[in-house]
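Comment thread on ticket #2218

A.B. wrote:
> Attaching the input chain for the structure job we discussed in standup.
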Amino acid sequence: MSQIEENLQKLGLVLPPVFVSGQLPSREGKVAYLGKVPNPVSIEQAAEAAKLAAVNGLAVLKDAIEGDWNRLVRLVRVGVFVQCDPTFDQHSKIANGASDLFAAVCGDIGRHARTTIGVAALPLNAAVEVELLAQVR
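C.D. wrote:
> Ran it. Output below, let me know if you need it in another format.
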């Protein structure tokens, strides 16, 4: 078993089946965190949403590498989009939810460049969306 698979188990994370691309904070086919940050979605909830979207991103990645985590060279870039008001300025606290998850699961190869952007709206009224670029063998 690869180190990444062991870390997923240790953290109690189960990757969901992948049916469509996109990394919204969805659980069992439903967006779990809806609305703008920081109201009605708190910064803490939005960080959890980013973490959940990151888990979904790992599920897409696992599917792309046919379950062979040894094919993952590194995570290159993570983009985090936050649905928020124009005056909101704490995007990085939310993006840390995704970045911290990638580091916990992938270790050193999970270190990545990151951008975080505030937007007026996201698909399905999701609070966050996470995109991921990975280098694979």
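A.B. wrote:
> Thanks. Noting for the ticket: The chain has one domain: 3-136.
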